[in-house]
Amino acid sequence: MTSQPFRRLEGGLIDRDRPLTFRFDGSTFTGYAGDTLASALLANGVTLVGRSFKYHRRRGIVAAGVEEPNALATLREGNRQEPNLRATQVELFDGLTASSQNRWPSLDFDVGGINNILSRFLPAGFYYKTFMWPAGAWMFYERFIRAAAGLGKAPLLGDPDYYERRHAHCDVLVVGAGPAGLSAALAAGRSGARVILVDDNAALGGSLRGDTATINEVPALAWVDEVGGTLEALENVRILTRATAVGYYDQNLITVCERVADHLARPDPHQPRQRLWWVRAKRVVLATGAIERPLVFANNDLPGVMLASAVRTYQLQYAVKCGRRAVVFTNNDSAYSCVSALMGGGVPVSAVVDTRASGPGDAARKIVDSSGVECLFGHAVVGALGRQRVTSVEVMALADGGSRVTGRSRVIDCDLLCVSGGWNPTVHLFSQSQGKLRYDEGLTSFVPDASSQAESSAGAARGELGLDACLRGGIEAGAEAARLAGFTPTEDVEAARCDHVDEAPVEALWAVPLPARRHGKRFVDLQNDVTAEDVALADREGYQSVEHLKRYTTLGMGTDQGRTSNVNGLAILAGLRDSDIPSVGTTTFRPPFNPVTLGTITAREVGADLAPLRLSPMHDWHAGVGANFVTVGLWLRTQFYARPGEAMMEAINREVLAVRNAVGMVDVSTLGKIEIQGRDAAEFLERVYINRWTNLQVGRCRYGFMLREDGFILDDGTTTRVADNNFYMTTTTAQAGPVMAHLEYYAQTVWPELHVHLTSVTDQWAGMAIAGPRSREVLAAACEGGDVGDESLPFMGYLESRIAGVPVRLFRMTFSGEMAYEVHTPSDYGIRVWEALMAAGKDFAITPYGTEAMSVLRIEKGHVVGAELDGRTIPADFGFERMQKKDRDFIGKRSLERPALAYGPRKRFVGLISEDGRKIPRGAQLVWNPTAPKPVPMLGHVSSTCYSPNLGNYIALALLEDADGYQGKLLYASSPLTDSHVPVRVGHSVFIDPEGERARG
Amino acid sequence: MPEKYQWQSALATLGLEARALAPVAEPGVTLSERRVGTQLVIRGDAAEAEFAAGVSSVLGLDLPTEPKTAHRKGDRTLLWLGPDEWLAVVAGEGEDRLAVSLAEALVDLHHAIADVSHSRAVIGLEGPRAREVLMKGTNVDLHPRVFAEGSCVQAHLGRCHMLLHQLDAAPRYDIYVHRSFAVYAWSWLSDASREYGLSIASSGAVR
């Protein structure tokens, strides 16, 4: 364990009484509660934290927050391993384990570093070039490039933690809890509006956490605590910390990723690791602050080159010295506060290099004057020197408006170079909301202009960088948002007071020129290894649109989304094209602002919770006898009931034969059921079905087809007239929802004049079908009172009765082709009636059967299901043209008169029997000769296939062109996918009892 | 003949009564299976005075015409489902005759009555964190300023449909879910409740 040599003895917001032990790349270190992984590493003097993406150059920590491009680490190990986390945002916890990325075998010695030496062979667009030339080269390069590419490695083990999603609504959402955001939340919260305040960090305050300013005559942090306390006391305000607003979508929907337990070694029991909030806000205040830009000069990626604001934050918030001797390089006044922080914290500053010939404003000048630091105005750092890290910098004078450097160079020793190239307002969310940006010459950056949604920006996010402006702007934005959301802001909320600091304007210097005859990589995008030279190359090769530049060079495409690089890159491009920055424009900002782990997006919808499982009322019975289940859509259904030692096919064949020879029972509760009531109910059915309904007697059922408007079959099913104005419709399981929607649409919008009401009663009724030659005897034994013979319950008849003391609806209808009945009973009685029927059927050897046997039975009988009614078939394809009414209109009728449907040669329904006893492949095409030269004409396709234990052979149903001509002929069922080509004999679609005598008994 | 089940509710498979025997101290959320009695969907034209009067006379409740509201008195509830659709929930006396009485009262009017008593399971949800649990599964704003005692709404709960009815300001909710989704909905709710401390209460009144 080392002793944090770069930790100051006092100051900062860390808790020295709570030391924390952590491991980085196998070494053990100590930090304190309140540290981030980055600050703890810096405190321990660890400056090399990663290797760059392409050239594998040594990289150190650059920033202190969300903008960090280099310090990406893999956190934790095993099944909790997570790659590509910014060390600057990882809160330290005891036992934290982290490792660096993109290096092999180690950070100090990395084989991939060869890319740096070979870099002139790896220009911008290198990958694209391998696609283009020489032909086929990509195939060769691909596996090397893929192996070398990428940052962290995705974990291979299942994540043991769980993630969550939740919704929230508010009047005012404030993003960012810095000076502007806190002020806005206070103004909005005091008005009574429902406010949600979100902030990325663990504590409120934003930039004030590393600031020495005073607000309302107290230290800034005391003011933060006071406002935080006020907000927490308001019941209408919700504060979310460790929460990053990542996406801004239409109608003011903002997604916020809350890291609930990332700061813990493992979440508490039942605690989610992360939670994604979907916040719907009436108004949004974006107080997202600003991000400092680096400066572009040779070797600006050396460890030890850091953003001035980050150095200041480490110094003040974390009490960490980022080096032993510093040089500050800036083009604006803000970096001067870094000078005072360094000097005050015991880090000598050798020089301040300011690109502005006139130097800084008065306040900044006072800092350097009082400390006696040497100032080089009108100068620039032309290069950082050193190998492992910065050891010195080379400074030259600027000339000709910064377009070249001149004079003798001077080398200044230092191990820390603090850079500031100005500030970019964090406009990502604003841009995601489709707001328009405006280039601000004074700020040399883009600021929000016209809003597209109900939002406003406040403070540094809108380019007002001064603390006093942030405090005032926040109050105004918060009060305005509350007012627009319908609340009256209270009068007594005033902006907090602080001193105004006059600053000299920033001076743009997008890339420090290289001295004559000198080389050196000047990085624009540190994460993706894009240099100023790469931007120039892309420009020369014609990629002049910023969007092309981005894709060609990968500028701004990393996990940091170019937070530090975009504006520099496009400004360099503008310079090369001799155009101004606004006309070059920016690339599109897209969600998420920060990477969001996939677990957080899927939340609890993983594994078994991916989709609901619908259970039949008789589920417990099936489970109790050890049924083999299968999911059908959302339903869990019994596939078959295997007896001990019985294989699947044996069980299915046994169940099929039991139905054909004795009696079986199957659970059909999943069928869609709709009650249709009203005095126009029969007329309604007349219009939606192809066949006649008004003449259906009470107590009778009828089979029918429903068509879509285009004439193709929507669904088939049976509807029963329960009473004069009351019909009970059943639909197929799969089409229950679509049919209900179809009927409601016509009832509500097309024929509102019809007096008809529809109610879905799918879940109200348990359904079971008993089928087989002995089914009537079983039913007679079970029913209490009343005859179920042909007189009272004829084929397609309906009867209300009681079984086991509970009411049942009896329907004499068949799917299997055998004499069969459907018994429906209110769902809670499902098991009771099922058991009563099983008991009554005991003497007749009643056999429960599953969906597989049901399918075999209906294929043997040539009955159609979704496989045949696939949205491409019409009634005539199945020989049902005579069912269609001629004298009445119905949905789809006119479409059936279209030539293609009325006269065109159409495939028709046939049966197939395997010629050589082999299985007929599912989904096979029917062809004359599978070995004929391609393309082989396709004559039709297999829709359903099974083994028929009654025929002792494999059979199938198919749709075949010229079906009559092919009757009795031999074709091949050809499945190139499974490479099986089975000879089949074409026959009639009904294999068993074509006269239908069994069903009528 | 096995007389194992007189009738079996949608949630019986979960053995909730046994789990209700071990209540949790200071639960954030309490779940229970609610047995609410007869449920009828009533359709008709609220603008017809006879219709509203007919329904009221049988149920003893005014017909709610304000969208997303419910009227409740004792063990009778009438929930607004749509401009011409209501759900009547009645337990206890007269429950079994309800459909017939309504049909008689509305005989000359265009209306429909469908018995859906077995269509939906009802899950009771209450406790200081009940609202938080629901917000994990629905995008409806349930803040007391918007959704209070007597409010009802049809929405999603996770990936299934629910009819949500707030009974009081505690808050106490009745969640109606389609029967076949009941086990899913229960599992979803209990999973979402776990971080707040979940207690399971006995189902109380038996139908």
Structure explained in plain terms:
The complex is a heterodimer of chains A (1001) and B (207). Chain A is of the alpha+beta class. Chain A has seven domains: 1-158, Roll (Ubiquitin-like (UB roll)); 163-290 and 425-484, FAD/NAD(P)-binding domain, CATH 3.50.50; 294-421, FAD/NAD(P)-binding domain, CATH 3.50.50; 519-605, Arc Repressor Mutant, subunit A (Orthogonal Bundle), CATH 1.10.10; 619-670 and 765-858, 2-Layer Sandwich (Gyrase A, domain 2), CATH 3.30.1360.120; 672-760, Aminomethyltransferase beta-barrel domains (Alpha-Beta Plaits); 907-1001, Elongation Factor Tu (Ef-tu), domain 3 (Beta Barrel), CATH 2.40.30. In chain A, strands 8, 9, 12, 13, 14, 15 and 28 form a seven-stranded mixed β-sheet that branches. Chain B has 207 residues and is an alpha+beta fold. Chain B has two domains: 14-36 and 119-205, Probable tRNA modification gtpase trme, domain 1 (Gyrase A, domain 2, 2-Layer Sandwich); 38-115, Alpha-Beta Plaits (2-Layer Sandwich), CATH 3.30.70.1520. Chain B contains five helices and eleven strands; from the N terminus they run αββαβββαββαβββαβ. Chain B has helices at 16-19, 49-59, 98-105, 130-135, 182-193, and strands at 29-34, 38-43, 70-73, 76-82, 85-90, 112-115, 120-126, 152-157, 160-168, 172-178, 198-201. In chain B, helix 2 (49-59) packs antiparallel against helix 3 (98-105). Chain B starts with 15 loop residues before the first helix and ends in a 6-residue tail after the last strand. Residues 1-5 of chain B have low confidence and may be disordered. Chains A and B meet through strand 8, strand 38 and helix 22 of A and strand 6 and helix 5 of B.
